[in-house]
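Much of what follows relies on a compact textual record of a protein's fold. Think of the row as the fold of the chain written in a discrete alphabet. An example makes this concrete, so a full record is given next.


***
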Amino acid sequence: MISVERLTKRYGDVPAVHEVSFQCAPGTVTGFLGPNGAGKSTTMRMICGLTPPTTGSATVKGVPYRRIANPGRHVGVLLDAAAQHSGRTGRETLALTAHTIGADRDRAARMLDLVGLTPKAARRRVGGYSLGMRQRLGIAQALMGDPSVLILDEPANGLDPEGIFWMRGMLRDFADRGGTVLLSSHLLLEVEAVADRFVVIANGRIAAQGTKAELLAAPDGVLVRGLDATALHAALAAAGLDPRPEGEGAFAVRATAEAVGRAAASAGVVLLELRQAGGGGLERLFLSLTAGTAPVPPPAGAPAPAAEEALR
């Protein structure tokens, strides 16, 4: 369980995050979404104890992250794959993690195999890794302690399609076995495919949150488009069907296709399109909630992200 209660972070007079609250329950994947600069990474760093909040609180498994004894055995974190030590090999990185958290060193080989890093790749220094290889190593490192909670910031960044498909299956399996996942990503279709819940943040505030069914439910009614948009609007209004413009001469109508078709036929309006209205998926929801938002620039003197090694 991850619980965030009215988290706020200010840098001087600049609000980076304002009273953000949400929960991530065991057995679920929560997609944490928002445009660049919306406050996602700042929120995740506050959850992980790397950035102190101005006000509010966050707990993981019932306590603040900093109070978890040996957190790597309970919480797997990947906030910045580039923060790994470039002079170590992939195998050395995981061996050090195993030593630090008291995990079985044999688990390192299993995790390398799980994330698709070959023995040859494991012997290479991390400084020679591609971004996708660093992401795979970061995921392996997050899984080293066999945690029950995963907190991942853009873990698919740099992965090829095969890697993204693998990660989707891994996260779904992790949650289905009772794990808790908080996942931030700009790959909306991938998040939509794997997440049970969504939390959307814009300008440091929660814009929407809820289950996939709640947020992506298609509206009742149909979408209709006619050869003469003005005549179609008049015909629908005359029939008491309350057409709502949808752009490019189309209208959304909360009515059956038969009622809309009859209204158009009675007025002699030629229809070009008549279909069930769709919700538009996560991408449309995201754009509708974040349209017009601008990222808050980082204030002068704001601390740079700490090396992720501190979490291991």
Summary: The domain at 2-216+286-311 is CATH 3.40.50.300 (Rossmann fold).
